[in-house]
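Lab notebook page, bench 4
Experiment: in silico fold of construct C2
Operator: M.H.
Input chain length: 170 residues
Purpose: comparison with the prior construct
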Amino acid sequence: MSKKDNQRSRDLAPPEAVTDPLPGSLDPENFTPRLLHLLSNALVWRESHELRRKFQLGTNDWRVISALATRPGVAATEISDFLALNKAIVSKSVNVLLERGLVLMVDGPRGSRPIYLTQAGAEMHDSMLPISMWGQKIIQESLALNDVDEFNGLLRRMLQKTREENPGGN
């Protein structure tokens, strides 16, 4: 915010409004959770934009396809748990992918509904993969290879710690 805009904002504020930054507030340029959030949003936004433009599918659809590529035959609930996505979001994506003939669902034991990629789904996976890998490339170009492995290990440990401290969350 420019000085002129800041002054205008102060002039418009009621007398009881706090108009100066708080001395103990976060430094937005050095607060790591904010930076991780911004990076994640930027990578996902670009991925989503490209997936919609090229394939008329979104990031959540891609995530389901990708999960099935590594875990064929899992049920929607398992996909939801693996991706840490709301079950309704996974269900919507599965329905879109079923309609497009990219996945199929079969009757499994004890009422389960295993989901598999079709051949068209496997081909879609291979076509979508480079768009998703762009984010990995950005990270790998910014770090040495052994640093990427260490960074991923740190992220996994931090995720585990958040899960341990918030057992009901993802």
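Observations: Helices lie at 3-12, 32-55, 59-70, 76-83, 87-99, 119-142, 145-165. The first strand starts at residue 103 and ends at 105.
Next step: discuss at group meeting.
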